[in-house]
Amino acid sequence: MSDSQLTFRAIAPIYSPLSLHLGVDQFSKHFIKSLKEINLVSFNGANDKVTELNWQGKLLNLGGIQNEGRQYQSTGQNSKDMRLMCWSPNAEDKDQTFNTQVMFHVFTNHIAIAEVEITIDFSDMETPNDSCDELVKFLENKVQQLGEEVIEGHFNDFCQDLQQLTLYLSDDFVFSQNINASKVNWVARTMIIDDEQLTQSKIQRILTSWLKKTSRPEDAADMINNQKDYAMTWLNYAVKNVKAVGEDPRLQIMVLSQYYYMAQENCNNALRGAIESAYSRGTKKRIDKLLANTRTACRLNQIVYFENIKFLNRPSRALLESILNGWKFDQLVENSERMIEVCNARLQEEDNKKRERSTVMTDFLLVTLSFFAVFELSLYLTEFSREMMSRPALDYNDNKSSFFLGIIAEIDADIMFSFGFGLTLILIIAYRYIKRN
Fold this sequence. Notes:
The chain crosses the membrane at residues 364-382, 402-431. Keywords: Membrane, Transmembrane, Transmembrane helix. By secondary structure, the protein is of the alpha+beta class. Helix content is 50%, strand content 15%. The chain contains eleven helices and twelve strands. It has helices spanning 29-36, 133-165, 195-198, 201-210, 219-224, 249-279, 288-308, 314-326, 329-390, 403-410, 413-436; strands spanning 5-15, 18-20, 42-44, 50-52, 57-60, 85-89, 102-106, 111-121, 173-175, 188-193, 230-234, 236-240. α6 packs parallel to α9 (329-390), α7 packs across α9 and α9 packs across α10.
């Protein structure tokens, strides 16, 4: 390679139309086995009719690269692969079956991480001995621009192949039809260098300037002195002696880190949106289900993260935690916890409102029943007393007629009804007073 050319890997989280329903365990043996057994050559539809499919790219690593039967088999390999699959576009070169410079790593939660290899010629850029800052700005913008162009150029083919894949998939999957653009969130830029290039003073200056504004600018000197073989802290990365796209273990961990960060950020965005909807003025829609579902999705995302990092081998886990610590991933999770507390408080408010409405309804029913009970008692006393007075045979066992029934029989019926209503009102006032105190 010319000393005026550099190779980069653009790593960018993008939107994926494919995901799993909430609560589906992607690491169950049945789930992994069903994905790995998919035959993508043809599809047997209804009535065993064979449908030939037109694939725009190649689907790789369906179900991940882990062994679904055993875990912790090797100290050098990870026991679990978070990816659902990978996708590479068909190659423009007829001698290749698919493009080895582009790979979309497909995860759940509607997230895919694009890994794109780009070579940039900067021979037209001047590189003075004292500074390479202008060249670095040019390289940053060029990697971002070319990376986005490549991703957007293949995005429709990627979505089309995933849609075809749904013919083979179970009901555990969900495919979103809302696809408007590739939705590139950001482009992280990885400089690919080898030992020979690091002996060149020009490349050394570029590398030093490339990492100058990262969390560890001293990584440039460590790489030049062969003390480290990578620098991956913030947006501008550098890695030595990299393997092919999708195969380098260090970049695989960076891809996984990007996924975890993107998934958590999506959860936080969803939580903010749910909270905004819950507290917006004049809202009339039910927000308890929205808050509960968003909170559950965020909790499950955190559970999956802490559950699955234990299946990484020790170097991979150390690198993953180092990258996420540099990105202050814990602060992102803590902010999520605070928003979940707000959701809990809002859900508690909704629950209290429901309880209050239930209490009011119960009170109303009690008042109604008590009114009719007292009213019926008044009616019964009036009817019974007058019947006793008009038919002396009914009290033949008594020594004399009932004084109490005699008084009631002489009272006007309207007065008795008014007495019943007044007694009900007194009971309501007494109940409210006791409840308030």
